[in-house]
Amino acid sequence: MKEEIIYGLNPVLEALRGTRKAFELFIAGTGTDKRLEKLLKLAADKGVPVRNRERSDIARICGSDHHQGVALRAEAFSYAGLDDILARCRAFPGDGLLLVLDGVQDPHNLGALIRSAACAGAHGVIIPKDRAVGVTPTVEKASAGAVETIPVAQVVNIAQALEELKQEGFWIYGATDDAPSILYGQKFSGAVALVIGNEGEGMRPLVRKKCDALFSIPMHGGVSSLNASVAGGVALFEIVRQRLAET
Predict the structure, then answer these.
(1) Contacts of 141 (CB under 8 A, 6+ apart)
(2) What's the number of domains the chain is made of?
């Protein structure tokens, strides 16, 4: 069984709440943070041994100084299948929401995008297996544990996955800097798959061709584009806003 070290209060808390098998919880000191109290209770409920360590030891165990005094040795992250995500969406006919990422390479961007998708009520995130970052402990930390609350699927071919989504009744909307239509003039109808491209080059041409509509986010000031994770968050919550306005 593959293992990994999860670190940070929220990621460890969500991992203990989830279905992953946990083997050891490492903590530095006792502290008064209520989240730490929850961690210790969850660990006790699940029979996970707790090891007290110096902060420097925990940094060595997880390979990062940003551990907040907590690390968990647990079963490695398990990806969902695309079929599993589609089955989940079928429970919400015409109301599915998916985030599709075409080549995001920065783990902090991926973690932030997964967190935004979870907060927006999306039913899943789809990422490519190649030439993109996968779900790592750094991504889990950046997502504040959101990877435990929303399924993430890795697929071989994003363009092919978009075709499958179309067959399931999804409309594909892509964010790109050069689209003449702007986000706030775009009507997001029915089941929606939102595509966000690579941090530098955006969507690949074949993926772009699979989109039913393209939109840009209007920029003001001296900067011409947003960070990928910020753009994804802005677009996701515009979709949420439109859906709430219809209710």
Answers:
(1) 6, 7, 8, 11, 64, 66, 111
(2) 2
